[in-house]
């Protein structure tokens, strides 16, 4: 039976990597009926909103979505559609595996970190105001409820995936109340999971440890902003934004998307690396129970990077998105 899944191609390189991902899923034999929905600047003029209600209705109905990146104007303009979507659907856990792929040269062999980022509050709550000309205020909103559920998610995830340690990343030495709440919640939740080793690290020290010895870190749980920054740092350690996937998980729905943005500098040139969205789709396949197809694509990706020089420019190659996708589909057929 075919799965019905919402597809938001997004903008910039989004449609290019989304099309590549659809081809790869088809090559792996998964039957999907795509419910295609558009959001972002492209629909704003016609619809008067960047996030039309039918996009949210589609995801609520289908429970699962695959999403390309959507650009957000810097310093002005509309609120991030990505943030609004996560808040509207209460997709509270943003899971980002930072894993080196065999065949690519990571900074450290065996890097296998999972960042579990709280996705609904912190400085992303959108509480900003100009107190007076020249003085701006952004409110960092942290609640015990959100801290507890993200820590619970991280420990449950660690148990489910056979991981050993969960480290909370914070700055409670300075933000004693807000980050203190995260730390306190983490310690309480840790007591309920005796099989998993709990650890604590300050966010700046964590950044240094990721650069010096990333392969010693396991599951990290943290707030929205720290998680955002550390995921890009992690991407840089394992081959770049072109390969790192992500999932936004809630109780009612899940939206799978790459860590990277719309990459306006290379959009429309046909040279984007679709691996990050393909790996996000692999996470999606595991989520919907299509384990065989997910494993097939995973094996084909490893095989491809180990055996073939066909790779996009961000990984040092000269292949276009389509050439890379053709080669990966061939590898899937041989797997
Ligand atoms: P970006 O991730 O789009 O690009 C950063 C750099 O990485 C660029 O040089 C880009 O060419 C490269 N890159 C990214 N993905 C790539 C891929 N798949 N293949 C090859 N190279 C790739 O970050 P940037 O430039 O800061 O943001 C651009 C726009 O994307 C902004 O409007 C931002 O708000 C939005 N954004 C959207 C996200 C989402 O939809 N979840 C996440 C992050 C940013």
CATH architecture of the domain at 1-106 and 239-335: 3-Layer(aba) Sandwich
How are helices and strands ordered from N to C?
EHEHHEHEEEEHEHEHEHEEHHH
CATH classification, class level of the domain at 1-106 and 239-335: Alpha Beta
Give the terminus-to-terminus CA distance. 23 Å
Low-confidence stretches: none
Bound molecules: 1,4-dihydronicotinamide adenine dinucleotide
Q: Characterize the largest beta sheet: strand count, sense, and whether it forms a barrel.
A: 10 strands, mixed
Backbone structural class: alpha/beta
Give the strand content: 15-25%
Describe what is shown at a glance:
With 335 residues, this protein is α/β, with parallel strands linked by helices. It has a domain of 203 residues: 3-Layer(aba) Sandwich (Isopropylmalate Dehydrogenase).
Describe this structure in words.
- The structure is a single chain.
- By secondary structure, this protein is α/β, with parallel strands linked by helices.
- The protein has eleven helices and twelve strands.
- It has helices spanning 14-27, 41-47, 53-62, 81-88, 144-160, 178-191, 203-213, 224-238, 275-287, 291-307, 321-334, and strands at 3-8, 32-36, 64-67, 93-99, 112-118, 128-132, 135-138, 165-170, 197-202, 219-222, 247-249, 254-257.
- A ten-stranded mixed beta sheet has the order 2-1-3-12-11-4-5-10-8-9, with helices on both faces. It has a two-stranded antiparallel sheet with strand order 6-7.
- Helix 1 runs parallel beside helix 11 (321-334).
- The chain is globular.
- The two termini are 23 Å apart.
- Residues 13, 17, 69-72, 82, 241-242, 257, 260-266, 272-273, 276, 314 line the site of 1,4-dihydronicotinamide adenine dinucleotide (NAI).
- 1,4-dihydronicotinamide adenine dinucleotide (NAI) binds at residues 13, 17, 69-72, 82, 241-242, 257, 260-266, 272-273, 276, 314.
